[in-house]
Specification:
Helix content is about 75%, strand content about 0%. It is globular. The longest helix has about 35 residues. It has one domain: Formate dehydrogenase/DMSO reductase fold, CATH 1.20.1630.10. The chain is an all-alpha fold.
């Protein structure tokens, strides 16, 4: 059976806006989702490590106490901000996405279960008055592990989505619904690429907490910035190794996209490498200063730009994988201008309100968990 017979036909319903606009919104909303997700996962992992393995240090225990109440709300924000990019993927690449989820099946259903268990675990830790017990640290770490599994299932699904040539064999050889695409050579480096990046960007949750605490508790705030900066540097250096592994694991045609075959992909990769090195250098020098605030802001700003270009690279890679099976020109388009304008206005307002909520809730000394 050929791959052309297993790929569903295009949805005949026309797109309500140009294809390029949906692509732009996909990259933008994915960027917002991935930043908050990294804060939740990476920040939670750093907090769990501090609570479990550094309890002899009072500042590390305070770090744990200050960060864990933020994680449940960050998980809610991660899910909310993840809806839009997932919907855009379904609109643009629905015939690939849905087929992959059907072949994968049970792990995809388990995503909701794992998220629910993680939610419970995060709230148990956040609402616990005494956070010094070792058991609380393990509850936090186990909850983080549930999120780890969710991320792995997503990576499995999206690598499977981008390899239609393997669908027939995977489905007809094993119809159990437990196809995690383990035979895909890029799965592990791709997943690790996201995992290590989550720790690097998640360290900014620690740094930002310190930056917003500086005027109240300069010594403790400096500890947070330095500790977060150390996690950022080590994770980013590890990311270079994982990134090289991911790049060389790609099929030749896809890898060449980043070696001059696609100008956007090549420039994005160059910016990612240079930006990552610059951020490490700035952070390394900054955390040696008595006042590391300005270097920390610069390192975070540069990393934010890098993450944007990494999101673009992800989209270029998906396009390269699906190019033999998908042509954007084949999608029918019927622009609904009134609905489009209303959506864009509400989208901008929503982003502004969300940014204000983040600033007021997560990074003020009075921020605390509420039932």
């Amino acid at each position: 059976m050929g791959t052309e017979t297993i790929i569903p036909a295009l949805d005949p319903m026309p797109l309500p806006a140009p294809f390029w606009l949906f692509k732009l919104l996909l990259v933008l909303t994915f960027f917002l989702h991935i930043v908050v997700m990294n804060f939740m996962f990476g920040g939670g992992l750093i907090a769990a490590f501090s609570g479990l393995f550094r309890k002899k240090n009072e500042s590390d225990q305070r770090l744990f106490n200050d960060i864990v109440p933020k994680i449940p709300s960050l998980l809610a924000a991660t899910i909310t901000l993840g809806i839009a990019p997932l919907l855009f993927v379904q609109v643009l690449y629905g015939q690939f996405f849905y087929t992959a989820t059907i072949i994968m099946a049970w792990p995809w259903f388990l995503v909701l279960v794992l998220l629910m268990f993680a939610y419970y675990g995060f709230y148990i830790v956040a609402l616990k008055q005494d956070k010094t017990s070792r058991g609380i640290g393990w509850v936090m770490l186990i909850s983080i592990f549930f999120i780890f599994l969710v991320g792995f299932f997503y990576s499995s699904n999206f690598t499977l989505m981008e390899s239609p040539a393997t669908w027939s064999a995977k489905y007809f050889q094993d119809r159990s619904g437990w196809n995690l695409n383990g035979s895909e050579s890029t799965l592990i480096p791709r997943f690790l690429h996201f995992l290590v990046a989550s720790v690097a960007v998640g360290s900014f949750l620690i740094i930002l907490t310190g930056l917003f605490r500086w005027k109240q508790e300069a010594d403790y705030a400096r500890f947070l910035i330095v500790r977060g900066g150390q996690w950022f540097m080590y994770a980013t250096m590890t990311q270079f190794v994982v990134g090289i592994w991911f790049l060389i694991s790609l099929p030749r045609e896809a890898m060449l996209q980043f070696m001059g075959g696609n100008m956007l992909a090549t420039i994005s990769l160059l910016i990612g490498v240079v930006g990552g090195l610059a951020a490490i250098f700035i952070m390394s020098n900054g955390i040696r200063n008595d006042d590391p605030r300005t270097p920390a802001w610069w390192a975070m700003g540069i990393t934010g730009v890098v993450v944007i270009f990494m999101a673009m690279m992800r989209d270029v890679l998906r396009t390269a994988y699906l190019s033999p099976y998908f042509k954007a020109s084949e999608l029918p388009v019927k622009t609904q201008l009134d609905v489009l304008i209303l959506f864009l206005v509400l989208f901008v307002i929503g982003i502004l309100v969300w940014a204000l909520m983040i600033k007021r809730y997560f990074f003020t000394p009075s921020a605390k968990i509420t039932e």
